[in-house]
Specification:
By secondary structure, this protein is of the alpha/beta class. It has helices spanning 2-30, 47-51, 54-66, 77-85, 97-105, 138-148, 160-169, 190-200, 208-214, 249-259, 262-270, 273-276, and strands at residues 40-46, 69-75, 91-94, 109-124, 152-154, 183-185, 203-207, 221-225, 231-239, 282-283.
Length: 288
């Protein structure tokens, strides 16, 4: 009997010890990281990664695990890069390769790191008055819109989306709002342009993520998607501290490392599946 009691006591003590040992690990997992010495990261980014909900989805996890606080400023790519050039950002997340390369050439950025992509889509009235459905690519669809003089809403704001639109029209071939009355240069963000397109029953080039996040509010359909000339690549660039004073380089590095890491990659790869039935962003296999 004494042996049985001793054995039972040993088991109870072992279980108690295991529980005590496990408790600090559980607490460590649920306890936010301590704030770094310079805890604020200023992120200047394009509207699509913010308006689509991607950043609000990712940032709470990053902030909890690292102790950093990310201040997000979202605008078109041109304006986002200008904020960094003016000394108001530590890191940028944008999607206009030519503008990014100019930013680097000016010494404002450390390195361009492409890491994910999605596709622009052309949305328009459900009856498709220009007949662009079935076009082989965006250039052919744009030509049909121009020939039919169907209304088209352009961002007109030097954003990555606007620059992609101009590239599709072709250099020197883009319509002019002053003379082509069907072509409306809004000078607005993506959400505002989609609302205008819906109200005026016009076509519009948009990133798919923002359209899907607003779809229920719009009287528009996707008329053309996933042609090669509508691929939309996003890049991270740390601001160069040797060019701009006051840059939080440690914070920028921490953010970029996390965004390129396995955890963020897994979160990005599944974002949108639950809400829209499809992932809104895809990861690049390699830098391009």
């Amino acid at each position: 009997m004494k042996k049985v009691l001793a054995l039972l006591m040993a088991v109870v003590m072992a279980l108690a010890f295991a529980a005590c040992a496990a408790k600090p690990a559980e607490e460590a997992e649920s306890t936010p990281a301590a704030a770094p010495e310079n805890p604020v990261i200023r992120l200047s980014t394009t509207t699509s990664v913010n308006d689509s909900g991607l950043l609000p989805y990712l940032l709470p996890t990053f902030e909890k695990e690292t102790g950093y606080k990310v201040e997000v400023q979202s605008a078109g790519t041109g304006a986002a890069l200008q904020k960094a050039m003016d000394g108001n950002a530590d890191v940028v997340l944008v999607h206009a390769k030519a503008s990014e390369e100019e930013f680097l050439a000016g010494g404002y950025g450390v390195e361009r790191l492409p890491f994910m992509y999605n596709y622009f889509v052309i949305v328009g009235p459900k009856d498709d008055p220009a007949g662009i459905k079935g076009s082989k690519d965006a250039a052919e669809a744009f030509a049909k819109i121009k020939d039919s003089k169907s209304k088209f809403i352009s961002r007109g704001d030097e954003s990555g989306t606007h620059k992609a639109e101009l590239k599709i029209w072709g250099e020197g071939k883009e319509p002019k709002a002053e003379t082509d009355k069907w072509y409306i240069s809004a000078g607005q963000g993506m959400g505002a342009c989609l609302t205008m397109a819906s109200e005026q029953q016009a076509y519009c080039l948009t990133d798919k993520a923002t359209f899907l996040s607003m779809k229920d509010e719009l009287n528009l359909d996707i008329a053309l998607e996933e042609s090669e000339d509508m691929k939309n690549t996003y890049s991270l660039i740390a601001v160069n501290p040797e060019k701009i004073e006051g840059v939080n380089s440690d914070g920028a590095k921490a953010f970029i490392d996390w965004m390129l890491g396995d955890e963020a990659s897994a979160l990005i790869a599944k974002y949108g599946e639950k809400e829209y039935g499809v992932a809104l962003f895809k990861l690049l296999d390699e830098n391009k």
